[in-house]
Amino acid sequence: MGSPDDFNRVMSVNAKGAFFIARELQSKFTADARVLYLTSSVGEAYKVPYPFYAISKKALNMVYEVMKKELKGILVAAVHPGLVKTDMYHVQVGKIPGFNERIAIDPSIAAKFLKFILSEKVNAKEYSDEIWSIYNLHHQPRWLEEGDEAPGQQG
Fold this sequence. Notes:
Layout: H1 4-25, E1 34-38, H2 51-70, E2 75-80, H3 87-92, H4 107-118, H5 124-129, E3 132-133, H6 140-143
Parallel strand pairs: 1-2, 2-3
Helix pairs in contact: 1-2
């Protein structure tokens, strides 16, 4: 499962850092600034055998809720970019029982999604309304380009 030091490290990276960086940078934000937290659906429903990661992402979801209120005049959002084929993915993927590799997303597709969220195509109210998900079929036609493979639903 992991040690207390492992737990503290994961919490520092995924939750504490996100909270304190935004707070420290608050005075530097311009009027059109947008803060975007990269969270995970694992923070909403524990699906994989990584409890520290799941707990830290749940905490990050609360950081998002708190910062929406604390960062007055700044747009704050959070996103589930999906299971992206990163270095962490390649190291961990074989350890997840019953894992279906077909749901993994190419980084270029995840990048298009993040670019869309941060663009002017997303208005201020919509930006902060809810945690964005790359798997949300409602938004996909707005950011996927012809020929892109739509990210499939997890699980």
